[in-house]
Amino acid sequence: MSKSIVELVDNLPADNITVKVLKALDFAIPGEWENFVGFDNAITKITGETEPEKIEQIRNKAIELYDDKKNGYQTAIWLYQTLDSTDKAIGAAALADKIGDTLSFIPFLKQLTPKADSLQSIDLKVNDPRL
Description:
The protein has 131 residues and is mostly helical. The model has no long low-confidence stretch (mean pLDDT 78).
């Protein structure tokens, strides 16, 4: 794994589509979600701890647990990132298919991209292996 857990949490988006949707849901059901960014900020929000020494201890323990491969945290992150990348690629291919349907003056695009319905089936299967 190339990135540490601290780096991954520090780089979580503060404002993207997912954050906007969760904010909208929080508007409907207030108090259920809060977007906090940054590893130390997450420690403070989750544990309520404000002492820098305690935050450092919790940070070090989290790094130790994440770095221990037998816990499976790195594998879980890799799996999530792989599915997320696959999902984005499927979305791009579906968009290309729809553009090919709309722009008839690019006939080869329809031959290069799978049908959107097929892509949605693949996406569903990738994201829900129970199916």
